[in-house]
Amino acid sequence: MKALKYVIPVLLVGAFLMTACVTATPTPVPTAEPTAAPTEVPIPTEEPTPAGFTVTDAMDRTITFDKAPTNIVVVGKSLFMVADAIYLFPEAGTNIVAIGATNQGSGNFVPMIDATYDSKILLDSNAGVEDIAAVQPDLVIMKSLNAEKYGDPLEQLGIPVVYLDFETAEQYKRDLATLGQLFKNPAKAEELAAWFQGKVDMVSSKVADLTDDQKPSALIIYYNEKEDTISFNVPPMGWMQTFLVETAGGTPVWADANPGSGWATVNVEQIATWNPDVVFIVSYFKPVDEVVAKLKEDPQWQLLDAVKNDKIYAFPTDAYSWDQPDPRWALGLEWVALKLHPELFSDMDIITEAKAFYSDLYGMDDAAFEAKIAPILIGDVK
Q: Which segments of 117-272 are extended strands (E)?
């Protein structure tokens, strides 16, 4: 038993030594096969759509458009004033597809500046809502005074309407901004507003130091002759005609004669009582030169100081008279200032100013002016 005690440990040591002499083969560790980097699968997206935009019009309404209108109709009363302002934007010609009557007695200006005029749908001045809707416009533009007659029924048909006024110098700035929004051309709107303001500033600065005594009393008369009945009319104080006289350094003698919202008729006796230093005659439907010549021969008018001193003037007119809130009001302002204060505006030539007006605002060169404007320009422009 004692021998066995020593044998067992010997055998265990021998077995250990034999195991140590054998090279162990490590068990391989499984590894993943190398794979390529995963490819990103693009997530489908919708095509981007143009962002809509809004326009704020003369009635302080906000109109939303999905895209810029390209099928525009321009209609309504006093249309030519609005049309001439709209055409200050180069986008107007291609986007207006139908237009109402834009003539006023002595001419039609739009065909002179729109090469596509003959391809447009011309709507009669008595065109109704159905006639307008038949054009399938994506926008109708009109003066706000047409809202009840045209605007409301058109909007009930789902046709967007934008209202403009273009009646005063302040409204010009506002309504040009609206057109800038509409045509996606705010830079042009700002440029135009600055152009008109520049004319006002130029005239205002030259008459700024005049005292009230140095401001001639002035009268603007709209001569209207219908069926052998003649009427003499004065504008409201808030109208463009009054603005022209006051801004140009004159004193309107009719200040208390027209508290209304339209032309007010006055008689020759009232005109004689006023006896203004200067008289400006406006005539929309009869050549203004002929009207002034006729008044100068009238014994009653010959009693006026303005007639005696040869200071009764025919307001310049080409396609339209320059006294109205058409873009030509800027020319009218310069012309009135020249007649009221020739000594302050001695460096101004009104024909040169007219050429600049049509060039700056409508892109007419001198040749186009001589061909289109000069032949129809009447009034005291010399």
A: 121-122, 139-143, 161-164, 217-226, 229-234, 251-252, 264-266
